Amino acid sequence: MDVQAIITRLTVTAVAYFVSDLSIHWAIKAAFKSNTKLSLKRYWIVNISIFLIAMAGFILVQYMHPLAARINNLFFGVFVSLLFSKMIVAVLLFFFEDIFRIPYSIFTIRKRRKEYLDNRILLSRRKFISRIALIAGAIPFSGFAYGIFKGRYNFTVHKEEIFFDDLPAAFDGFKITQISDLHIGSWDKAAAHELKYLVELMQGLKSDVVFFTGDIVNSRAEEMDGWYDIFKNIQSPHGVFSVLGNHDYGDYIKWKMEAERTENLVNVKNIHPRLGYRLLLNENVALEKDGEQIHVIGVENWGKGDFPKIGDLEIASTGVAPDAFRILLSHDPSHWDAKVIESSNPPQLTLSGHTHGFQMGIEIPAIRFSPSQFIYPQWAGLYQHAKSYIYVNRGLGTVGYPGRIGIWPEVTQITLRKK
């Protein structure tokens, strides 16, 4: 990332972080009239300190030791929690007071100056409303804390049945387990018990095949050290197949020499066979059952924007008959949206991850919302275009905010059905 891009991101982040303080500053004055100066001093010291430390971490994270990066990631979670909490306070103050206070202040300013010698442009906030808004802001902050210490371990199984006209009869009822975005560098050793439970949960599904759709590490191959004994227990009758994600290429840290990045990528690729996974690098493999076949096609990462665009569906499909039943493993769902469904013969099913569902949102029968949907048309779950389907897994690990709220870490089981 160049200097201009860093400055732009820091500026945008600063605006988003501090804009709500235009309201909160005056709310604190109204809520703590007996001790205003001390309350404001404490607030601004904590507020600015958190911002500066978080931004320093953002700039320096690519140079950090993995342990320091984990600590930085936890602190970034505090930053994100405070950012969203402040936004909520500002929104509450606007809708419950400012939307009335500001127009009323403007329309009565002449009368107040004449009759009450009141030269203020805006009337003061009400103490009660200010305190309620500040207290309400503490509630989502608690929710973000829950996401860090509990929500990230709430492994959830999502099950889907998908029907196809051209599925070989032998594969009717064939079960697939999909996981994605492990980001093993986002877990510390205290999570060992939970990750052992995750593997046991997966094995308990008794699927016919397991697919891993990328981002096994945050950046460095060494992040997997100490975890091999847990994840090599992921097995299935037809094997475990995997692809790379954007983080696996090591592009998010600063390497002293290009040779180090190249060596790291080789080591990341070697993680997969050490775990017993077959890594597909723009290639395919046939799964056989009762004399019939389906083909698994795995591409390297392809994503919109500045993400790596190494995946090549045409090369990966070499040797696969046009009328064969195909399952594509492609980390980034923007590949499906931009390239796959526009191809002359798209695969029947694509499995992706990458989005994490933004790691926060609402998924209940009446409401399904996440900020991720403003970036990715296919952000979580099952989607269809003509006779081609994509399933976007919500991922297991975290990036940025080290927790999950409402969008829980996912294990997917898909059952193939013949119409």
- How much β-strand is present in the residues? 15-25%
Fraction in helix:
40-55%
Task: Tally the beta strands.
Answer: 14
Question: Separation of termini?
Answer: 49 Å
The backbone outline, from C-alpha atoms, is elongated
Oligomer: single chain
| Largest pleated sheet | 6 strands, mixed
**Series of secondary-structure elements, N-terminal to C-terminal:** HHHHHEEHEHEHEEEHEHEEEEEE
Average of the residue pLDDT scores = 90
Structural class: alpha/beta
- How many domains? The number is 2
The CATH C-level class name of the largest domain: Alpha Beta
CATH topology of the largest domain: Purple Acid Phosphatase, chain A, domain 2
Helix tally equals 10
Rg, nearest Å: 25 Å
Q: List unreliable stretches of 5+ residues.
A: none
Identify the CATH architecture of the largest domain: 4-Layer Sandwich
**Order of strands side by side in the largest beta sheet?**
1-14-2-3-4-5
Please give a structural write-up:
The protein folds into two domains: 3-149, no CATH class; 153-418, Purple Acid Phosphatase, chain A, domain 2 (4-Layer Sandwich). The chain has ten helices and 14 strands. It has helices at residues 3-18, 21-31, 36-60, 66-115, 127-149, 192-204, 228-231, 258-275, 313-316, 333-340; strands spanning 156-164, 175-179, 209-213, 240-243, 278-279, 283-289, 292-298, 326-329, 349-352, 362-364, 367-369, 381-385, 388-392, 410-418. The strands form three sheets. Strands 1-14-2-3-4-5 form a six-stranded mixed sheet, covered by helices on one side. Strands 6-7-8-9-13-12 form a six-stranded mixed sheet. A hairpin with a 2-residue loop joins strand 10 (362-364) and strand 11 (367-369). The mean pLDDT is 90.
